[in-house]
Specification:
Elements (H helix, E strand, L loop, with lengths): L1 E6 L2 E5 L4 E5 L8 E11 L2 E4 L1 H4 L1 E12 L3 E7 L4 E7 L2 E12 L1
Antiparallel strand pairs: 1-2, 1-4, 3-9, 4-5, 4-6, 6-9, 7-8
Amino acid sequence: MYAIIDNGNKQYKVVVGDVVRLEKLDAEVGDKVELNVVLVSDENGIKVKEEAAGFKAVAEVLKQDKDKKIIVFKYKAKKNERKKQGHRQPFTEVKIVEIANK
């Protein structure tokens, strides 16, 4: 059984036991969170829309962290105009505990 969940305008295919990095969630380490289910596939077939809305994906928060730093460098040629910036995207790492009916 697997499910497609959505978080932060992205969709993830998950199975029970998967560890996934999602956009930052407002939760503490050890908390359980419910995630939006868009599609569910099980032994009875595929369920979407209203049928999938009856399902929930429960995940446990493993850690809140920041990703590796990326460098953003902007410049204009022949103008002596340069701007160097770094960015670390925050994320939440979760482990899928259960996919079940609500």
